[in-house]
Structure formats: C-alpha cells, structure tokens
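Assess this one:
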Amino acid sequence: MGNSYAGQLKTTRFEEVLHNSIEASLRSNNLVPRPIFSQLYLEAEQHLSSLEGGSRVDNEEEEEEGEGGLEPNSLPNSYQLHPPPEGCCTTDGFCQAGKDLRLVSISNEPIDVPAGFLLVGAKSPSLPDHLLVCAVDKRFLPDDNGHNALLGFSGNCVGCGKKGFCYFTEFSNHINLKLTTQPKKQKHLKYYLVRNAQGTLTKGPLICWKGSEFRSRQPATTTCSSSLFPPLDSSGPLAAFPGEPAPGTNPGILMGAQAGPASDHPSLSAAVAPAILNGKDSPKHQQLAKNALSALPRPAALGILSNSGPPKKRHKGWSPESPSATDGGYPPSGGNRAKYEGAGVSCVPQVGMVGPASVVASGEPVSVPENLLKICKAKPVIFKGHGNFPYLCGNLNDVVVSPLLYTCYQNSQSISRAYEQYGASAIQPISEEMQLLLTVYYLVQLAADQVPLMEDLEQIFLRSWRESHLTEIRQYQQAAQPFPATPSTAAPVTSAQLPWLASLAASSCNDSVHVIECAYSLAEGLSEMFRLLIEGKLAKTNYVVIICACRNAAIDSCIAVTGKYQARILSESLLTPAEYQKEVNYELVTGKVDSLGAFFSSLCPEGDIDILLDKFHQENQGHISSSLTASVTKAASLDVSGAPVCTSYRLEPHGIRPFQLAVAQKLLSHVCSIADSSTQNLDLGSFEKVDFLICIPPSEVTYQQTLFHVWHSGVLLELGLDKEHMTRQRVEQHVLKLDTEAQTKFKAFLQNSFQNPHTLFVLIHDHAHWDLVSAVHNLYSQSDPSVGWVDRLLNCREVKEAPNIVTLHVTSFPYALQTQHTLISPYNEIHWPASYSNGVDLYHENKKYFGLSEFIESTLSGHSLPLLRYDSSFEAMVTALGKRFPRLHSAVIRTFVLVQHYAAALMAVSGLPQMKNYTSVETLEITQNLLSSPKQCPCGHGLMVLLRVPCSPLAAVAYERLAHVRARLALEEHFEIILGTPSSGITVGKHFVKQLKMWQKIEDAEWRPQTYLELEGLPCILIFSGMDPHGESLPRSLRYCDLRLINSSCLVRTALEQELGLAAYFVSSEVPLEKGARNEALESDAEKLSSTDNEDEELGTEGSTSEKRSPVKRERSCSHDSASSSLSSKASGSALLGEAPAQPAGPPQAEQARSPPPCGPSEEGRAPGEKQRPRAGQGPPSVVSRHSPGLAPQPDCGLRPCQRSVPVLAASSSSQLSSSGSSSSSVVPATGVLVLQASQCSMTKACRQPPVVFLPKLVYDMVMSTDGSGLPKAASLLPSHSVMWASSFRPLLSKTMTSTEQSLYYRQWTVPRPSHMDYGNRAEGRVDGFHPRRLLLSGPPQIGKTGAYLQFLSILSRMLIRLTEVDVYDEEEININFSEDADWHYVQLGDSWPDLELFRKLPFDYIIHDPKYNDASLICSHHQGVKSEDRGMSRKPEDLYVRRQTARMRLSKYAAYNTYHHCEQCHQYMGFHPRYQLYESSLHAFAFSYSMLGEEVQLHFIIPKSKEHHFVFSQPGGQLESMRLPLVTDKSHEYIKSPTFTPTTGRHEHGLFNLYHAMDGASHLHVLVVKEYEMAIYKKYWPNHIMLVLPSVFNSAGVGAAHFLIKELSYHNLELERNRQEELGIKPQDIWPFIVISDDSCVMWNVVDIDCAGERSREFSWSERNVSLKYIMQHIEASPDITHYALIGLRKWSSKTRASEVREPFSRCHVHDFIILNVDLTQNVQYNQNRFMCDDVDFNLRVHSAGLLLCRFNRFSVMKKQIAVGGHRSFHITSKVSENSAAVVPAQYICAPDSKHTFLAAPAQLLLEKFLQHHSHRLFPLSLKNHGHPVLSVDCYLNLGSQISVCYVSSRPHSLNISCSDLIFSGLLLYLCDSFVGAGFLKKFHFLKGATLCVICQDRSSLRQTVVRLELEDEWQFRLRDEFQTANAREDRPLFFLTGRHI
C-alpha cells in the first residue's frame, strides 16, 4: 500500500491551498487561525449525483496476514515444509489419512471429543472459505479473559482419530495446512465451534489470542458469515475488538461527539454518535454475552479482554494481574474493560483492503505508566491507525484502545461498485499518507469543545477521493473508454514527507495537535507520549498524532486523544448502554460518589447545604413564608358550591382528528392493496370480523395509557368484541406488555387466530423500534430475559404463516426497520402526512403539532426566546468537576450537579436568597415557575417539570435528594415529586390525588392516577427514568423538559429524537392567529435578518394585538414564564407570543439585557412546517448567537456559577411577589405587570405553547447545527444502535427527502447488526424477503398514532362487514291487484315438482310482476278485470337506477362473486395461483348457418386448457366440434347438467361470474358471452372462464342479440351432440336439452320452507333460507317430465314477499333474470336479436303463444345485486357531430325523413325503444291511461310506457291468443311484421274511431309495401307528414315508421 498514491489529490488547487494554508498558519498572530484546507473538504459538498451511492466491492474472505508484524510487501520468512510421507493424502481440507475435516462436510456428524478438549476451527491459507475441525486441549487455549494459555500444543485429528499431537507444526502437517510461514496456533486456530439448536456444528466466537488484532477480510456485510453466531464476531467494531469492525460499522460513532459553538464550521458541528457498540453488540460485551449462550462450550464468560494472554514467549512484561491492583476505579468485572479494546476479530468484511491485512502487534511492548489517570485527569483514548500497533502492558486500566479509526481508514479504501463502473482499476483509493494528512487537518480545525466524529472524517475522505478523481471520471463518461493511465500532475505525498507535512499543518493550532515522529516503530512514539503526559507537557494538547514512516515506505500510525473533555466523551461513548448502567451502579454502590458530596459541601461558604436546610426548617416551623402560601383569591369565578373554578382547565374530548382519520384510511387502502394483488396473500373476502392485539414495551404507564385509549375509542364495541358493558378485563385481553409473562397471553392469541380462520387478526406492535434483538443471537438470553421478546413472539413461524394475521409495526423512529434485510416492503410503509403542502393546510385541525423540526425552527428563527436551550453555567461546572473527578462517570457528575442546582434553587425561592449563587439561571427559572404557577390559578393548577434521568439508580438518588430538600423547606403541599420508572406505576401523595379528583370530577374513592396524562394541572417534578422512553405521553401542563442529563456521549438518531420527542406537543390553534402565523410562511428570508432596532414596528406588522414593547421592558431580565404570562391577557391571541424561558448567554451583562418574551402561544400556535418570522432582537447579538450558532460569533460561556447570578435581586417582597420570581433588574416593570397576572392559570398558556427544552451542550450543538445537506447534524447520525452503515461511500441524507425517500435511503445504506432480528432475513431463500402481511406506520412522536390505528381497526371492521354484505334489489312484486281469480291456482301446495297434468290446466298470467318493469306497459289478458286506474307517473330514465329500493344483505357461503373475491378454495377455479402459471387458453372458431340472418354465423370460443374436457375436438388441439351434453337419464349429484350462459357487457370487474361457492364446488359448465371489443379485458380478469365471443357486427347490439345467439348456438350444438352420441347408441331425445341463461348480477339463491297444517288448509307457516345454486339446479333438473317444459324460472327475492306469493309452489307466468331454457322445445321461437329492453317479456309471450309451458318455481328465489356500472347503462346516446356533451332528450330520438336534424350515435333500435318508452302518448293519444282500450301489438311486445296498456297477439297459425272479440283497441302497433301478418288477420280486430296506427319497417320502401300488402289504407288514413325515422345517419340504417288514424 505504501507505494499506492492513487488516492492523492491531483488538482493544482489542492497544492495551492495546502501551501497557502501552511504559510498563513506560520504568519498568523491569531492563536487558532482556521486552516484554509477546510475550504476544500469541510464545506457543502458538490453534488456528484452521478457518482453517488454504490455499495462496496464484495471481496470473499481472504486472510492476508503479514507474519510477525511484517508488511505483506516485505518478504515472508521462508519456511521449509517437511515433505509429506509417501502415499498419504495431500488434498486441502483432508488430513493425511484422507478424512474430510471441513466444517461444512462434517457439521452434522457425531464427533468424539475427549474430556478437557474443545472443538476449534483452523484456517488454511489454501482454503480461505473453509474452517477445518480440530480437537484441542483447552489448557493450551486462552482462558475467558484471553489469558493463561499454556505454551505448546496438544490436539487430536477428528478425521482419522489420531491422537497425541504435541507440536502444532506436526499437527499442521497432518491436516495439510501447507504453510509457507512458521505454523503458530495463535495464527491458525481461529474460532471455537459450537452446536446450534439443531445440533449442527457451527462457527462460534473467536478465540481470543493475545493481540489477535488480525483483520481478516470477509464476505461482504450482506452475507456476513454462515455461522450461527456471526454477531459474535461482528458485533460492533467493538470497542473491544479491534477486529475488523464492519466496513461501515460505525457511522455514527463518535470519534466524538462534537460540541461547541461550531458556528464556523456548521458542517462539522457536532454530533454525538453511538459508539458502534450498542449494547448488545458491543464487542466487549459481546464476550460477556457469550456465556449466555448455552451452546457455548465454555461456561465461564469469555471475558472482558483486558490483557489477553502472554504477549510472546520472549516478552516478560506481561502479568496476569495487569489491571493495577491499586486502581479501584472500576468494578472488577468491568474493570479491565479495557481498555485493551482488541481481542477478537469481527466478521464484518473489510472490503478492498490494501496494505497490511492484519494489524499485527510488533516490537517491544509499551508500558502504560502508573498513575496516568491521576496525573492526566482523563484516560487517553488511542485510535489505531495504519500499520502495526505495539503491545501495551502495565497499567492498562488507564488507557482505552479503539479500532474505530482503523475501520474508518479501511472503509475509505474500499472502492464502491458505483465508482468501479467508470473504468475499473485506474481509480485507486486514497493513499494512507493522504488519509493521515486529512485526519491531521480535520483535528487541527476542531474547536476546543468539539469532539471528533468518524462520520465527518468519512465524508472528508469521500469528498477528497471524489475530487481527486473527478476529472478522470468525467473524461471516462464522455469518452466511454477505459481511463488512460496518465501519471498525475501533482506529486503525491510520500511517506518521507508525511511527518513534515503533518507537523507543518499542526503548527498553526497552538499545540492542540501534537505530532510525534518515530524512527523505528510506534512503540517509541507511544512511550514518548506517555512520558510527555506524565511530565504535564501535553496539558494544552487534545490530540497526539504518532507517525512511523521508516520501513519499506509503508506507514504505521495511531492517534491518541489526550484532551480531558474529548477523551472523557470518547471513552464513555465506547460503553454500551448496559455497561454504562453497570458502571454508574458500581460507583453508587461502592460510595465513590461520596467525594462529590464532600466537594459540594466545601463550596458553600455558609457550610453544608443540609445544615442550612435543617436550620431553615427549625426557624420556619409553624410559620412558613407567607409569600408561598398566599393563595390568589382575586377575580376567581366560583362554582355553585362556592369552590373556585378555573376556566382554563378542561379535559380533552376523545375525538378523532382529521389527520388520524386520513392515516387510518391510508392504512386501510394498503391492506386492501395487499388483498387486491394477485399474490393471494390476504383474502379479505373470507373474513367476517376483526380482532386485535396491541403489543407494547414493558412500561406500566404505557400499558395503562394504551388501555385507556382502547377503552375510550369504543373500538371493542365497534368490532363486536364486547357487549354493551365493557369490562376492564376485556380491554386487558387486547393489550400485551412484552415482558416475561407475555408468552402465555400471546399463545392464547395464536390459538385464537388458529381456531377462527374467518376473523382477521391485526397484531399491532407499538413503539416498534424498541427491542429488536434477535432471539437466535440474543446473547443475553439468560442474564436479561426481558430482551428479544419481539423477535420471539412477533416473528415466530405461526405469525408469519397465519393467513389471517396482519402485523402492523407502529413507531416514531422506523429507521431500524428500514434496512437492507427488512421484512417490510417499502410499499407497505405508511408515513404520517405533512400538514402543509405548498402552504396549503391539508387537513383543518384546531390543534397544531409542534415537534422536533418546529422546535429547531423556532430556535433558529431568532423569534422570541428559543424553546431549545442549553445551560452554559451547568456545563461549565460539569466540565470543571470532570477534571477534578476523572474516575467518575460523567452521568454521575451531571446528575449530582443538577440535583444540587435544583436544591439550591428551591432554597433560593423559599427564602434563602444567598443560594442563588449555587444554581444556574435556568434552574432558578424552572423552580420559580413551578412554585408560583399554582398561585396564579384559583384552583391551584400548576405546571409539570420533566426531569429526565435515564439511569434508574441515579433517578432514585435524585428523587430522594429532592424529596428531602422539599420536606426541609416545608413544600410538600406545593408540588409533588414523582419517580417514573418503566417497571412500576405512578405514586402520588393523598393530598394531590384529592386535588386531581376534584379537578377531574372523579367520584370513585379508589381512583389513583395511572398515566402521566392524568396528572394534568398538577404542579410536580416528574423524574422520568429508564434507558429509553417507552411511548409514555405527557400532559399539556408540561412546561419544562429538562434533558440535561441524557446520555449525550452515545447517541444515535433514534435515541436522540426519542428523547426530544418527549417535548412534542399539540398547540391549540383556536386562538385567532391573525396574520402572525399565517404570514410566516410567506415572508422572505431577507426579513429574517432585520436589525434589532425595529422590534416595535415589527410587532405592529405581525398583527399582534396592540402590544408594543417599551425599551424599559426590553431591559428587564426576569424569569420567563411568569413575565410572559403578564402580557398574555392582552395578547394571548397573537401568534407572536412565545413562551420560552429567557436564557442568558455569556457575559453577565447579557442577562440584564434579556427581553422577556411575550407569553407564548406563538410557537404553540404555529403549525409544523411554517417558518417563524424572526423577532430579530432579544438584546445584544451575543444572545442571539447563543441560540443560533450560525448568526454571530459566540462569546466564551465558561462562567463560574458564582458569576452567573446577577446580584440585582431585591430580596424584597416585590421579588417574591412577582411570580416570575426574582431576577428583575428594575422593580417597577416587574410590579407593573402583576395585576394582569393574578388569575392567569398556567393551563391557559399550556394550551398555546410547547414546553421549553434544556439539552446538554453537546446535543444542543448537534441538533442546532446543520451538515452540508441542510439537515440537522443529528439526522446524519447512525439511525439506530442495532444497525450499521453498509458503506462509508454513501451520499448524505438530503433536506428535501420525504419520509418515503428517507426510508429508501436507509434501506439502501444500512444493514442490521448480527444481533438485530432481521439479520438472518435474506437467508430465508425468498427472492424478495418481504413479508406480505406486514405494515409499518411511522409518524412523529405524540402525534396521535394510537388513535389512528384504533380508528383503522374500526373502519377495517366496517369494511369487512361491508365486503360480506351486498346491496340487493328489494322490491315488491307489481300489479298484484290484477291477478286472476282463485280458480286458477295450483292446488297441490305440498308438491316439490309441478304435476304436468295439473300444470297444463293453469292459465298463463300475462301480467308482468317483476318490479324492474314498473314503468313498462301493462299486458292485457281476457280474465283481467278492466280497470283504468292510473298506474302512477312514469319515472325519468335517469331516476330508474336511483329510485329502486335495495336492502343490504350479508353474503352467505353460497354467493356468486366478482373479481375482487379471493380465497383459498377458488384460486384454482379463478385461474390465479402463485403455484400455477396463468391459465393458458386457446381460441376456437365455431360456425353454423342460420337462415334468418341470411349468412353463416361465425362465433369464437376461448377455452382455457383446464376446461377443454367440456368440449369435443376433431383431435387434440384440432377443430372444435361440439360442447358435450349429458343425458336426461343421468342421476349424478356430482355436477350440474345444464350449461350456464351469462351475457355481459361493461362488467369485467363487477360481474358475478365466480360461481364456485354458489355451485358449492360442484362441476359445472359456465360460459361468459362477451362482445368482441371486450374480449381482451374479460380474458384478463377471468383467465379460467370459457368465453363465447360474439361476432363484431354485434358490438353495438343489445342483450337480445346475445340471447338470440346463445339459444341458436345451443340448439345447433344439441343437434351436433345428438348426431355424435347417436353413433354411440344413444337416442336423440335422451340428450339433455336445457341451458341456463343467467344475468351477471344474480348473487344468491333462496328456498322457502313451508309448514302446511293440512293439505287444503289455508293456514301455513314459512321461512326462507339461503341455499346453493347447485341445490336449486339439481332439484329442478330432477323434476319429472322436465323435458315438457319450455322455460323454467324463479321468483325474484323481496323482503316484502307475502305468504300468498309463496303459498302456491308453481305459477305459469313470466320468468326473468335466471331462466332454464329448453332449446329443443323452443327451436322455432327466437329471441329478437335487435332488442335492447324487455326482450325477455317479448320472448316469454312468444313461447306461451306457441303453446309451450312456462313454469316459475315460487319457492325458489334469486337475489340480484345492484351493480352501478355496465349492463344496459353502458349505452350512452350522444350527438354524432357536435362536441357538445349535453344530454340528448328522448323527444330528439326521432325526426322527419330528409330533415336537417342532428344525427345521433346510437343503434336505431335503441332510439326507437327509448322513444316509445317515453313518448308513445304522441303516437297513441287515445290509449293514454285507457286500460280498457289497449294498443294491439302484433307478434311483439314493445314498452310504450306505464300509462299505456298493450294486448299481445301472435299471427302464427295455431298459436294461443287471448279472445279479443269483446275488446275494442285504441291503437295498432305493427313492428317489422312478417308474412304471417296478412290483411285478413288484422280485419278480425275492432278499433275505436280515431285510434292510431304505427307501422315500423327497416326502410321506406318496405314501409310502403307493407301498407299496400296489408290494405291498411282501407281503414286507416295516412298523411305525408306522419312519416318518421330514428335520428340516425343513413349508414347507420335508421328505422322508419308511419302513423295513421282509424277512419
């Protein structure tokens, strides 16, 4: 690597900047000039989007280890192998006896392991991908701590069983290692082997040889390793294992968290990051964890690896007791935590490594001096860099060694695939020299309070590399040819120049970076550094860079962090959360913290604080300061009982907000899209109800809170899971705490889901980013049983496979579920919608959400006092104490300091003003407002202060201490102190419970608050502990969120946002915002910089209510909350008013100048996303800079506490009266505002402003500074502890990214750690790896996700019910009053089938009873009473659909379905199935001749392969000959005999063609009859259905054409089948002659059960039930004499059916919708192929007149579904010429021939039928409402409208007609009459005088011929103007008609 300079910057710009920078540094007088170098790499990067983003090269695992510290490019020691004995096996992977030793081959074989031996895996250089299995005596292996391995070797061969190898050399020959270097067990025995749960031998943990820092290259992260416990290796770049941490392993790792104003370098400004070692993954910890794995061979923990094993035989410096005995600073177990962070190799790949493949320790060991910590006041953190790192021995407890920098260097040398594509080899990684030089420059420009951050360094390397190769890449892109290997113009930095250049760079920084150059090895540099440290010569130095650039031009380097602040933060960041807790616990238990207490006592001049407290307590007993107890009685309204009432306090109604509804609907649509996809993963149609289980973290408060939400949402009642009276037990069944008791409840849930396949179970995983530990890799499984439950339960096989469980993960921080291995498809993610889009409010809500981005924005805007702040005096004190107590963890120090501040502030407010000097202004403000708030409200409502103490033991300490101080100050009744821990509920004193019950009007004597929300209005300090918040919501009375104690050293994005999420808040926007908030978004940025002088004018423009701030007020400094409240009554409505405690910065005078913010709805009222208008000045610029680091240089804030408090406070009553308490510099304004405040309840403000948040400085800087993308620095941190970056070659997140784009970014650039539950997901073998029924809902914290998913459950349930319901027509039969006399009834009421003889005697009922023909003409019959009553007004055509009555019915299991139904049973029937290919089908032509059409009819069948058995072909795949028909004599119940034909148009999705369930699974033949132009779409939706495609000439025809062709085709087929089967000896009459013609909307079928009291009795009872179509068809097909019936039908269902209608089992009447047609008997009766409407009535009349029987089975009924699309509605009548889409009215459907009338684009027949339906009164004026004198209609039935009756007669000889002798007709209708109609036939009928005639013909000539042939002019008078035509163009063949009057 030493000679590879390809990474060198090649531009002259670099040379120039570098030299100018060095020169400027040398000449500069300034102490810390900014290196110009940072201009190159540290500013916003240029977006080279074309180059962004590939992943690293995946190298296979190769180990290139230089022996004994030699570089690979130096010659290896030559090592002579003994030649193998003659004839023995020399194959790699086999022993010399020829037995296979490879782990993959023998992992399942039993292996005999003698006692005291362990199985280990050896690596052979010739087989890099395999481990060879060996049995080795464990005495010769290192112990649990990596120590005490005996020298020498003893092992056996597990292949041939040979035992007793005493030398590793001999053994390595036997197992054919074929080494070229001297065999060493340390080098080749790599892993312990363990048996997993299946008994398979797998690779286990690394063997921790001393100094095993070899870094093997391994398969890329995605594959990691096949072992069961890869995590052991890769668990993080463990602090403990220098072993190659994954390439991108630690993106967030703090090389440091950076702190400091950073205003100069916004891009660098701080970020804390997690050490990559998240708890479970930490390397060190990893070891501890190992003993939890029962499978591991060695029971004892594998150790904490401080100093492992004797260094080398010749080194004497090693002693087993390396941690110094005197040092008690750490618990024994964590004691050696050391600090030697390397022991073990992590399995994450080091990709593309060039150079030393292993960092092998070399040279003499370096001794760490005793007392190093005592002298330096901090443990130096040594980051290994390039090359070899020496052994350390001696006082290892006082140093920390970390491999993070090494990893960073390696990652930056792995060239990403994205860049390789531009030309392969010419682009080389950055050289080591360049890397080191860039690192030095980076360190030089860090401010004194900043901490280096690995991610910054990675970005710098990436930019440098990109810039150096930009020209080549561009050339390549343009020329598309491999790079020319031209030498670079700029000379590369050589290793010889490096130390000089580094020293030159460091010379400008005033010693903050010190460079040590070594001649021989790093050891001398480290020794030199330790010497300088001990001598105190590095006091000002923060970083020591040690470079050894002598050997072979390769460099060795390391960097030591010696700055006290940086070293402390970095070393603490390397602890996992578990270690952090352990450490703190240890310090508390062993009393190490007592020294802190002693120190505090010594600070206080009046003596110990406790003595002061006791003294105060004794003095004040009995007369507590009146200023505190004085209650405010002014202006309080009283309720009836006389108790004071506060108008501001009202409990929130439990409503659903528009946002929540929108999200619930989004969730529902995602569930529907899963169901609609063709993957069949979710069959919504098969579910009848919804059930759910909500899984939450084990927090009692969250549990109670969730129960509360479920209870109040009413979701259980909505889902039908509970009856009217909900019990708490019922609610508890639906919420599960994921703790050790969860398993039982979860098993019950699984059992329930298994037993109820028709219930859809929604498994909701709330707070889903918590506990993602893999159950398999859960190294803590024994020691910490609370971890890994999510994986064990929610990811179990039963949940994954259950088709009726949908899993919904809900979280505010979804990042850990968005990795390369996630189970959740990106299409199944639902993100909370933004409330604003382009300035438009998308959902109007009366509350606005105020989250992290709003906090940052309000703080950056300089608008009023910021809501996010840090406390500089607190930070200064912590830093000072950190130096004084280097052995104490900073969390302990911070907690003690803060508690001390609170104690002092409470004392100061209670009458010990001298204590103000011992607290900070911020803490004083908090306590003043806490104590004064209850006095401002008549009821005593106060505010809540949240004090976040993550570490539970410290929280307990804080609680005890504050409770003690409160007791001593006699403040127990003034405010409550509550200790909130996840494991226990809330404890509140009786006095406060009583208050809460009174406020909330609770009667229950037993009531206790169980959630924080129920503490609304209670003045209290809530000490909130637990390492992570678990989703607990906080009340609106939260005013201060004190996060000063959060663990700032190991933050990742999730942890940081989670803590800040506690302050998220809904701000009431009911207050009139006026212009304030509305205009903010529109204002220009220029205005934001307006000067501080125009504040008054600005207020006016903001629309604040008449408020101006006078200079006096601006001068006043007072604690904010109360001051602000003073103005609130005036200006509460203004969006300006913002309550944020004033926070001084820097020099004391700034405090006096702080202006009070006017009270706060401002921020509150602002909606997320709006920009806040700046209020530029709050006093001098220094104040502004304090909170917005980018605006002004920041003064040094390191004030001592005593300087901080400004001694202006008058201890007079005014200062105590002013609720604001006290630091006012002028008393007048303070008292002047008091009047306004008196009854101002803190709850009023609470609704209008978010809480104020105090952060640690480090976190504040990270949140407030932005990186190159414009996002807060915090957003670019590693997203979660449980994931790692896939590559350091990743683009930055961008500010413009939506949540979806962020998700895709994390899915591309992060991979789970081995301990993450998704780690093994890709190995499951599925291509996509996504689970189909898993969804992820993410939204900001506290925004209402719980309400949204509960609402989702409700609407899902409603939808399922709606899916199982259908709207069916529910109309009474019409024209019942026209029915015939009782003599004409079928009398055998109990018959199952009609008796043919009885039935023949029944007369035919001509009258139409089907309600869909309510507006059709009545048909007269001879036995009908002649009545002329009005049948009601005819409906408008468009009302026909709307007005029809429907009923909602639950689908039965025998329903017919449309294409949206999917279920297991009918997959195959439908032809969609993942296991089957889409059904193939073939097209067959079928021709037959038909004389009426005058030509041969060519039809096409589309027949799926699976249905070919229904047809006969001339040969397989040949000509279609016929459709098979069964025999009349067949009695089989296995199938339905009649083929079913369903004509359909426009209903490919909605037609009910899935008859699988209706037929109850029986075999049947179903043919869809479709028009040619719709063939393709129907075939797509119904691939497994047979289609009959009508000829194209029928594309615009109506249903008559389909019926006509179905019937003709069926008769033709019957003839073919008779001929075919006659050859088989079957009689023609035995072939089954029936077909079914069914509408495409028939959904269910019913049968009526009759219970007759007697044969002839009038009394009977009946009930109706749903049955299958199979039942009905088989019953009808089994009728005796069935072949004598021509048409059989069913009654149409109606809920209003009367007993009289079902009393008779059979009727001889019209049949509709679902008919069974005998094609044999009806051979000579045709459907009219031209008809669009009423063609069934027309056909029925024709069949009857031909003397054939029509039978309706009254006890069977069919339900018809209302389908709003397709069918007859698909015909639209429009104008043929004009573009105008205006509707054409029916009167325009006809016109005079040859006129200039607008022609219409519609078939002539349709225009005619529509015209006659609506306007026939113009043709037959005498017939209107004249039912006694109907219109005579010959051979056809046309609908003339409901007000005209018709009488149908047939002209066919021998036809049955009614007797017309006594009827006089009012009109005559001759429609396309044929030759059977003659003049003589018409003369038999009598007409009224003036009756009208209408003759309709195809053309004008046939019209004249008809008039002549029928001698019409004898009796009828015609006029020329009485001729009309339909409004068609000539090419559309209009129909013509002539009208005349009877003479």
